[in-house]
Amino acid sequence: MRIPCPWCGDRPLSEFTYGGDASKARPKNPEKASPEEWVDYVYLRDNPAGKHTEYWHHSGGCRSWLMVTRDTRSHEISRAVLAKPQPGGATS
Amino acid sequence: MRYSLGSIIRNAATGHKHWPKQWREPEPKKAYDIVLVGGGGHGLATAYYLARNHGLTNIAVLEKGYLGNGNIGRNTTIVRSNYLCPENSQFYEHSLKLWEGLSRDLNYNVMLSQRGALVVFHTPAQRDAAIRRGNALRLNGVDAVLLDTAGVKKLAPAIDCSPTARFPVLGGMLQPRGGSVRHDAVAWGFARGADAHGVDIIQNCEVTGFRIEKDRVRGVETSRGSIAAKKVGIVVAGRSSLVGQMAGLRLPIESHVLQCFVTEAIKPVLDTVVSFGAAHFSIVQSDKGGLVFNGDLDGYNSYAQRGNMAVVENVAASAVSFMPCMSRLRLLRHWGGINDMTMDGSPIITKTPVKGLFFNGGWCYGGFKATPASGWTYAHLIANGEPHPLASSYLLERFETGLVINESGTGPLPGTH
Ligand SMILES: Cc1cc2nc3c(=O)[nH]c(=O)nc-3n(C[C@H](O)[C@H](O)[C@H](O)COP(=O)(O)OP(=O)(O)OC[C@H]3O[C@@H](n4cnc5c(N)ncnc54)[C@H](O)[C@@H]3O)c2cc1C
Ligand SMILES: [Zn+2]
Q: Which of B310, B300, B313 shows the shortest CA–CA distance to A15?
């Protein structure tokens, strides 16, 4: 498996560290979030067999955090962009 | 038919042509009292103990592929009960006790070999942790023996115990009652036992949905038609999230692949089960002579039953630094299995918000050794509607109450347990 880093191009898997499911968003208002929202954020995962959006750290390269969309059945990668905070708080 | 010395002699005399089939191949009925989804080790064990311990036999086990295609036939076959957390320690110890009587109970040789399970350590900090674990085990009534370097060398001469080793061995913690079991025989033995009690084992029957009316389960939809059921138990290991989703369950589980390797057969070189302390690497020699071993998870969500080359390289490096005599062996086979990794690394045996629907999963890559106790306690839960005392900490609620059971202390990162 190779991950196309926007800075470095196609690089082998061994240069990257997995950062997990990127579809989870930390509760916007931590003080006011309900216990259910926290359980959902910390523990519950969709775990799809198919397209999965996930974080990867190019730890053995440019050290950018990426957001990658990968098919968990074939490891085919359809999208890889820099993970950066967006205006409004969400990550793109 | 009961297997015995007499039956072997009789069948040998007639050229082994008259052995009966070990279980029937029934057509699914329209309705059952209990339907179990998943014919892996845990599903078959559950069916067996529902019949044996609770007298319930109007049961179907629905398996989407062939019996034994899943992790029950893909694991490294290691059994032990040296867990630190008391909830796990008592559960896995019960499992080991069941293993010890299983061949007799099933009238089927599952080839339990209590050759000892040794975990080696390489640093003073690891030794402290091992001693702490050993003491905790002994307080829980589980066997544990501390070995120094000479003790390790005597037990397993193939391990590089020299001071110049890449990771010098300081000693190890041995569980003498640990060992290995023939994994396929476990599936076959439980299947034969359940079938003999009248359980229908239905292969090539995939569950594609659940019939749920007013928060109560009424049955399942399958690739071979709908089947009504008063109670349904999910027990599908690596596909837990996908099957759970069909019933509206959201689970604290990620699916990850673990790879397993077998070398060409060689003469006996290792008569115990050993785990490296410097990386994830466990190894056992099979009765045929092949060295069977596994490394760490590939490390990212996966439903592909095959692994990546980076892990193959890591595992080979571990093998050669731990047991240098392996360097010239050729790999014969190599495969992957999908593990249902939970957020705290411990399993889930639980009721669900849907009445009559139960869930068993989250066995991570340690669920083979749990097979008998998983079946035993899941059968209790399904039969009585209340958790078995040995599994009462394994409920789904623990992720809400905060009473998680985290052996490795690594937090909610399924790939790290
Ligand atoms: C490489 C590897 C090494 C391992 N080594 C060890 C070890 O040394 N010691 C140890 O204790 N554990 C080990 N494990 C873990 C252990 O194998 C598993 O935890 C355990 O086997 C899981 O339970 P099971 O046997 O019921 O799973 P499985 O055999 O996977 O059973 C689940 C079944 O459900 C079926 N299924 C899925 N979806 C559906 C559906 N929709 N409808 C019908 N059926 C369905 C599947 O086809 C499958 O047969 C290892 C695992 C792997 C992959
Ligand atoms: Zn990069």
A: B310
Residue B216 included in any domain = yes
ipTM of the complex: 0.93
What are the pLDDT digits (tens) for B178-224?
Answer: 999 999 999 999 999 999 999 999 999 999 999 999 999 999 999 99
Phi, psi for B191 (deg, rounded to 5): -65, -45
**pLDDT tens digits, B273-323:** 999 999 999 999 999 999 999 999 999 999 998 889 999 999 999 999 999
Residues B382 and B297 in one domain: no
Interface of B with A in 127-156 (CB under 8 A): none
pTM score, two decimals?
A: 0.96
Instruction: Put residue B364 in one of left, alpha, beta given phi > 0 → left and psi -120 to 50 → alpha.
Output: left
B303-324 burial code (b ≥16 CB/10 A, e <16): bbbebbebbbebbbebbbbbbe
Burial of A86 (0-12, 13-18, 19+ CB in 10 A): exposed
Establish if A39 belongs to a structural domain. Answer: no
Which ligand minimizes its atom distance to the CA of B333?
1
Say if B255 is an interface residue toward chain A (CB within 8 Å): yes
Residue pair B330/B374 in contact (Cβ under 8 Å)? The answer is: no
Instruction: Give the contacts of B229 (CB within 8 A, at least 6 positions apart).
Output: B31, B32, B33, B34, B35, B60, B217, B218, B219, B220, B356
β-strand pairing of B200-202 with B59-62 = parallel
Looking up residue A51, the CATH number of its domain turns out to be 3.30.2270.10
Domain span at residue B379 reads 27-112+180-252+343-417
Tell me which ligand sits closest to the C-alpha of residue B246.
Answer: 1
Please say whether the beta carbons of B156 and B272 come within 8 A: yes
